[in-house]
Design goal:
heterodimer, A: 168 residues, alpha+beta, Ubiquitin-like (UB roll), DNA polymerase, domain 1, 11% strand, globular, B: 329 residues, Uridine Diphospho-n-acetylenolpyruvylglucosamine Reductase, domain 2, Enolase-like, domain 1, 5-stranded antiparallel β-sheet, 3-stranded parallel β-sheet
Chain lengths: 168, 329
């Protein structure tokens, strides 16, 4: 019986070697190279993908542990002809320079918007039980797992704020 | 990463048996274990994937406390309505650690067992008595900014890096453990981690084949709860010093209850019940808070780069006590 994983809506057999990280499986196994390998230790966030609706570092998990899970990568969020609202906002706000961290930033921010909609607090939230207001400080704290060595942070925050405001 | 077998047991009983009979490591979130396997600090012959066992429940206990299953993620705990309302200290501590991506994977059981971030431990080329017993401690006389000032030994000055367990220690949490023989036992979070002594590789009370099944918190005791974490940047950094506090005042303006625990200072969440005993029954004052800090730091020893932690711990404790007692500085 073949164990499988769903990536961007399509089922794929899982690799046989248990050492394969979800990140290496996506890039080398499926040739979905939008997801980037930065530090490979969960420090930079370039490998962020969404698994069962939750954002994680794909470098710090084994593909073998994701039988029947539903993975969404940057390729599953939008296309050049039909970008997702965040992909469009990153273009409009110039939310990148070299672009290497961008797929991770956008996957992370996509899940962030759902976390805000679920009223999940962050370390920047003054009140744990009230309704959240999405300040720039909140966005920055919630995006602290995604580094941008070009330093496009101001425009990344602007892009996320733009989409968050359109949603409310 | 060294080759290993992947085992996915279908029951707790099978997991305990497999863990006891092989040099397998349990894996749940995997964020710490896989990081260390890539560095060849951890080289298990097998990983035992317990992530699909039925240990992900979070529920009220009959006595008004909270049961947090070992596989409940840090995010699930921090966003849980009862945690936010009744144990805000725990939500705050979790949210002050790591990143959203890591908290989404990190589990209650795994977080309790996370390893130190001592540079000598995580660098397989360096001496470390924890990783390679008898090789020496590189941090003593070396890079020691993150290291312990309390409860150290000549063999190891590493710190326990987590935040969650510091809050759980102050809250009086209890770790529920099932042994490979199926026998269940309970260990207070305050007693779960070990001091390094002459066995720095032994970081907690778990024996071969033991699996953490849950942490239970007692019913909330009232008063104010706070978690103050001092770190080198404002997000995604380990504590230099952290203070978890639950303090209640009586109607005379005196301290009625004070449960405190400290992170960043030792090989375990630091808990000294003498500090609470000193504070209870007293009116808050700068002199009292200084006495509490004297008690906390009675045996403190710096190792050069981390000398600053001793005055930092004093000032952080004072600031927290001023905050939760309403005393002005």
């Amino acid at each position: 019986m073949t164990r499988s994983i769903s990536v961007n809506g399509a089922a794929h057999p899982l690799p046989n070697d248990p050492r394969v990280s979800l990140l290496d499986f996506l890039r080398d196994g499926l040739r979905l190279t939008g997801t980037k390998k930065g530090c490979d230790h969960g420090q930079c966030g370039a490998c962020t993908v969404i698994v069962n609706g939750i954002r994680i570092n794909s470098c710090l998990t084994l593909a073998a542990m994701h039988e029947d899970d539903e993975v969404t990568t940057i390729e599953g969020l939008g296309t050049p002809d039909a970008p997702s609202p965040l992909q469009q906002a990153f273009l409009e706000h110039d939310g990148f320079q070299c672009g290497y961290c961008t797929p991770g930033q956008i996957c992370s921010a996509t899940a962030l918007l759902d976390e805000i909609a679920s009223n999940w607090p962050s370390d920047a939230s003054g009140d744990l039980v009230g309704t959240l207001t999405l300040s720039d400080e909140e966005i920055r704290e919630r995006m602290s797992g995604n580094l941008c060595r070009c330093g496009a942070y101001a425009n990344i925050v602007a892009a996320i704020r733009d989409v968050a405001e359109q949603r409310t | 990463m060294r080759a290993f077998d992947y085992i996915r047991p279908v029951s707790l009983e099978e997991a305990g048996r497999r863990l006891a009979e092989t040099s397998a490591k349990a894996i749940a979130g995997g964020t710490n274990l896989l990081d260390l396997m890539k560095l060849q600090v951890e080289t298990p012959s097998a990983v035992c994937d317990i992530s699909r066992l039925d240990l992900a429940t979070i529920a009220d206990t009959p006595d008004g406390g909270l049961f947090i299953g070992a596989l409940v993620t840090n995010t699930q705990t921090a966003v849980h309505q009862r945690v936010r309302k009744d144990y805000p200290l725990l939500a705050r501590a979790i949210l002050a650690g790591a990143t959203q991506q890591l908290r989404n994977k990190a589990t209650t059981g795994g977080n309790l067992c996370q390893r130190t971030r001592c540079f000598y431990f995580t660098n397989a080329d360096q001496p470390c008595n924890k990783r390679d017993p008898g090789s020496g401690c590189g941090a003593i006389g070396g890079i020691a900014k993150l290291h312990a000032v309390l409860g150290t030994s000549e063999h190891c000055i590493a710190t326990y890096p987590g935040d969650m367990a510091v809050a759980m220690t102050a809250l009086g949490g209890v770790v529920e453990i099932v042994g490979a023989d199926g026998h269940a036992r309970s260990v207070p979070v305050a007693d779960f981690h070990c001091l390094p002594g002459d066995t720095p590789w032994r970081e907690n009370v778990l024996e071969e084949g033991d699996i953490i099944t849950a942490v239970t918190l007692p019913a909330p005791v009232g008063g104010l709860q706070t978690y103050r974490k001092v770190r080198e940047r404002s997000s995604y950094a380990f504590a230099l010093v952290s203070v978890a506090a639950i303090v209640a005042m009586d109607d005379q303006g005196k301290i009625a209850r004070a449960d405190l625990a400290f992170g960043g200072l030792a090989h375990k969440p630091w808990h000294d019940p003498r500090i609470g005993d000193l504070l209870v029954g007293e009116a808050p004052s700068a002199a009292l808070f200084d006495k509490a800090a004297d008690l906390l730091l009675e045996t403190a020893q710096g190792y050069g780069e981390n000398d600053f932690k001793i005055p930092l711990a004093r000032r952080t404790l004072r600031a927290v006590l001023e905050e939760v007692t309403g005393a002005s500085s």
